[in-house]
Design goal:
Length: about 190
Amino acid sequence: EVANGLESALEGAQPAALIILASFHHAKAFSEISDHLGSQFQPQALIGGTAQTVFSGLEAPDRRAGLVAFALEGRGLVARSFMMDWERGPAELATPTQWNRLASTGSDHAATFLLADPFTTDPRPILEALDHGVPGPIGGGMLSGSTRPGCNVLIADQDHATTGLVGMGLGGPIRCDTLVSQACRPIGTPM
């Protein structure tokens, strides 16, 4: 259903980026789902994670199974995905230079988008390092698909993990603005 909806919306265009969110009901099959969507649409970058409630449209389902994919397409857009987990080293220890190598799409870098596991990732040092290492707004959130450590699923292209964070750098002829969603609070220093 999600693949058909994306195909219809894209009208044959190839997306630069694909972001997939799935409720915990899909956690065991999430790797397979993301591999299928990645193979079908072949975006430059694909990230995803598990969330407590996933909805599209105006109504949020009450703890029912949900799966949603967001595609970003347009001429000249550049997307680059990355993952930091405890096997690759904790994201909190990355320097601004390391973040620039991971997330930057070059001189036309427009924004960075992050999805993080709340049990294994402290967002404050990451945001501070990103602020000094990568230009543009930073958006995203903490994954809520599990109430226990090791049960959230994070995806970056073909890599899958249960710790750390995934992210995407976006560049090209695109303008990105950030806002705080209802029932959420910002992290870091206000602008």
